[in-house]
Write a structure and sequence with these properties.
This protein is α+β, with helices and mostly antiparallel strands. The protein is 35% helix and 19% strand. It has two domains: 147 residues, Rossmann fold (3-Layer(aba) Sandwich), CATH 3.40.50.720; 188 residues, Dihydrodipicolinate Reductase, domain 2. It is built from 13 helices and twelve strands. The radius of gyration is 20 Å and the shape is globular. The chain starts with 9 loop residues before the first helix and ends with a strand. 47% of the residues are buried.
């Protein structure tokens, strides 16, 4: 692991998720750019002192010389370090699992894409919500045409935790997310907007072809956007709306997806992830429940508990890690083994950074509708 020292929110979540199924073990890390903090973090994670490294460069060099070397690197740093750490891992022969977004800018995403292509190593992104079983069930249904032709898409991700100038208090998570040097080009659009964008494309099977974006920095003095409203046009001509905010006072982690087709609508809420609602024209509404026998066989494999026992964020993370582990293990005997297409990879990384850049630039220039190139 690179990153994840004291004060990190996402590092411990990655660790819990990766180890949940007993097929992955955290054995080494450069947990902070401060050697002492890295050592302390290693001790808290139960890592051997000799494998709690002072920096990620040292970790790459020393690990590749060990007989029991790491198999892959997990990146849980602020965005500006995603590219250099990923490049270092790939150049040293290690597969990569990265927290989103892939990079801080689109130009960096293209550079990373080229490195993944050149090294032929595995690269995955933890677009966490793609790991929820009922999201995967929704994906199968939408792509199989159960809703008919998709006519409208609405995705919302609203939070209220940055309604005030939290970064001014020294709050670690707020500080780096509000700093263009660490977060990159986008604020809320790059932090949670990429989740919403990815979820829409992941489930619907359609790409966003055009956008008309209005991004705002509502809190005075904030350098990056904290509220985003984007009109969408899908590649089949269907309209859509993407609403993202971190100043939606009182909202917690309200990610919602609504897809409307010719036959009916599909509705999923992250704060109630064990329920998928289907509303049909001329037929009774349906509620699909997590772990039910009537779900697709592949979906049922993603559950660890019987129906009625809630599973959440860590388990969704763990599904992505488990699928990644399958691909890494397959590489031991098959150098051509690839990730399952249900696991987001570098293609989704480039797509999401294309969305962020086009949204930010078009909003600043008041350009109106702009295309998202494939």
């Amino acid at each position: 692991m690179v990153g994840g020292a004291a004060g990190s929110f996402i590092g411990p979540v990655h660790r819990m998720a990766a180890e949940l199924d007993g097929v992955i073990e955290l054995v080494a890390g450069a947990f902070s750019q401060d050697p002492e903090r890295s050592r302390q973090a290693g001790a808290s994670y139960g890592i051997s002192a000799e494998r709690a490294y002072a920096n990620y460069e040292e970790m790459m060099e020393r690990e590749r010389k060990r007989q029991d070397a790491i198999d892959f690197v997990c990146i849980v740093t602020p965005n500006h370090l995603h590219l250099p750490v990923a490049l270092a891992a790939l150049e040293h022969g290690f597969h990569v699992m990265s927290d989103k977004p892939a990079t801080a800018t689109l130009e960096e995403a293209y550079a990373l894409q080229e490195a993944v292509r050149r090294t032929s190593l595995l690269y995955a992104l933890t677009f966490t919500y793609t790991g929820y079983p009922l999201v995967r069930e929704a994906r199968q249904m939408a792509r199989a045409g159960a809703l008919g032709k998709i006519r409208k898409a609405v995705v919302q991700y609203s939070q209220g935790w940055l309604s005030g100038s939290l970064e001014a208090t020294g709050h670690k998570q707020a500080v780096w997310r509000s700093d263009p040097a660490q977060a990159g080009l986008g604020g809320a659009i790059g932090d949670i907007g990429v989740h919403a964008f990815n979820l829409l494309e992941y489930v619907s099977g359609h790409r966003v072809a055009e956008i008309c974006a209005d991004l705002s920095s509502v809190v005075a003095g904030r350098a990056l956007d904290d509220d985003c409203n984007v009109l969408l046009k899908l590649d089949n001509g269907a309209p859509g709306v993407l609403f993202v905010s971190q100043i939606a006072a009182g909202d917690r982690n309200d990610l919602q997806l609504h897809l409307y087709g010719e036959k009916g609508g599909l509705h999923w809420w992250q704060e109630d992830p064990n329920r998928l609602e289907l509303n049909w024209i001329g037929k009774p509404s349906q509620t699909l429940h997590a772990a039910a026998d009537y779900l697709a066989p592949s979906t049922r494999l993603d559950f660890r508990l019987p129906m009625g026992h809630p599973e959440g964020l860590v388990e969704a993370f763990a599904n992505i890690y488990r699928d990644f582990a399958v691909a890494v293990r397959s590489r031991f005997s098959d150098a051509a083994a690839q990730l399952s297409d249900i696991v987001p990879g570098i293609r989704e990384g480039v797509r999401s950074m294309t969305f962020v850049e086009r949204a930010v630039v078009s909003s600043r220039s008041r350009a109106g509708w702009v295309g998202l190139p494939r």
